[in-house]
Design brief:
globular, Ribosomal Protein S4 Delta 41, Chain A, domain 1, five-stranded antiparallel sheet, 10 helices, alpha+beta, Structural Genomics Hypothetical 15.5 Kd Protein In mrcA-pckA Intergenic Region, Chain A, about 210 residues
Length: about 210
Amino acid sequence: MARYTGPVCKLCRREGEKLFLKGERCMSPNCAMERRAYPPGQHGRETQFRRRRASDYARQLREKQKARRVYGVLERQFRRYFQEAVRRTGRTGDNLITILESRLDNVVYRLGFADSRAQARQLVQHGHFWLNGGPTNIPSRLVKAGDLISLRQQSRQKTYFKERVPIMEEREVPGWLSLDLRDLSGRVVNLPSREDVDLPIDQQLIVEYYSR
């Protein structure tokens, strides 16, 4: 399965803002955006001071790249998500955000089982979660309203998940999800709307990018 394996802090620096790709580290002074808030590369510091006003195409491209990097999706799959968003009724941009949020790895992250989407993706790939009572290891699987995501019985004894419970107690779960800490499971109450997603992404710019 193809995925980005390079240093994720460079992605935040390229976009010029925190994308919270490394969980708790992004909230600490060790965050690369705190120490080097300029684009990566040999001439990154220089370009910081001589940036020109970005063109419409550049703004559209950067917004698309930002969304891809936040959710950990490569270009071909992202384009398929956009095509699916076009087919659905309603606003294409809002549909796209709903699809991205409906990925299983994102749901595991939103429920608090992981500090980042990349970590949640790894947990799913290792088979720690069941979907509607059956095993799954596909992070890109899209959930539906009413779906139940539960921690596999054998995984409940692992130190990581035992230590994770107190952290999950303090984290807020989005309104479109419900979390049962006693059973270590979560349910999709309904699919998220754009208002449920607190990400600084302008989905209209993404629509404009693919509509050129």
